[in-house]
Amino acid sequence: MFQIKKSNQIITVFYLFIILLFSCFTTNFSFGSTVQSPYTFQSSFVSLNWFFTANDSIRSCSTVADLDGDGYLEVLLTSRDRNLYCLNKEGEMNWAYKTSNPIVSSPAVADLDNDGTLEILVGSWDRKLHCVSHTGQLEWNASIGDTTDSSPCIADLDQDGSFEILIGSGDQNLYCFNATGDVEWIYETGGSVRTSPAVADLDNDGTLEVLVGSWDGKVYCISHEGEEEWIYRTKGIIARSSPSVVDLDGDQNLEVLIGSWDEHLYCLSSDGEQMWNYTTNDAILGSPSVGDLDNDGKLEILVGTGAQDRNMYCLSYNGSLEWNHQHVNLWI
Fold first, then answer.
1. Angle CA 136–137–143, to nearest 5
2. Backbone dihedral region for residue 268 (phi beyond 0: left; psi -120 to 50: alpha; all else: beta)
3. Average pLDDT estimate for 202-216
4. Taking the model in full, what pTM does it have?
5. Which residue in 258, 259, 241, 245 sits closest to 196, CA to CA?
6. Whole-angstrom distance, CA of residue 162 vs CA of residue 143
7. What band does 7 get if pLDDT is binned at 50, 70 and 90?
8. 13: Cβ–Cβ under 8 A, 6 or more apart, which residues?
9. Phi, psi of 137, deg, nearest 5
10. Among 150, 143, 151, which Cα is nearest to 109's?
11. CA separation (Å) from 330 to 29, 76, 128, 286?
């Protein structure tokens, strides 16, 4: 019975692949395209309303915002086809902004110039940070020295009423730009910075700290002025896992969660000391997320692992395993 069920799953996926492949060959490849699905893919939880097809892989997370102030959200996404896409609520393309190289950075949105309209920020493999208007026009770009997978983080670091933009680069640096694209400071790590920075007031002194992981295997805590506050060394590279900052145990102090290639999820105190770590069975490439899943007043932590393990781990706030779920590869 198991073999029959598995065969049916493979056949179903094969036909879905053929449908999607056929739709790709019947669209215009200058930009992506939207399909209002003639098929209803349903489970007990979700149904598909529409899907949008870019011309290369989409490796970033989508961002939603009401860009034009009409009361409806737009969807922003990037693709290795070099485009930043803006879609309306029906999945139709409002505009596309094209860079000269692939984009795997996720878009960030803020009103940088206090003019009442939103700007979109995104990094590209063209070695630039791009600032794009809500209508898809370039406002400015800034050099970041190398390609980037890092997504921009926007915060008023110095509390002067104007935003700063933080982004990592393959040149081993974390860049801090002001709202008009001028460099405020650059912090050099010992490896490529492919993760995305996080910002929080870790020490309750009224100023923000910046946290970021690097391929040198270290977690860096940097002041709002670009000075080192502390460093924690893991035993592997930090390739894609970005820091999550949260008060896990309700003691009014923030903890820092981050995964490493050494197969560990680390929980660090606000001053950079290890509180606990959890050992998985493969590298941790994704970023941890946190929530009270079972409504017991205590937070759980979710993190996934690489292709050899393929597990989603759910940990308690103190680092003990609550459950894990293995993804089944239907192509095997």
1. 110
2. beta
3. 96
4. 0.85
5. 241
6. 21
7. very low
8. 330, 331
9. -100, 145
10. 151
11. 29, 30, 38, 21
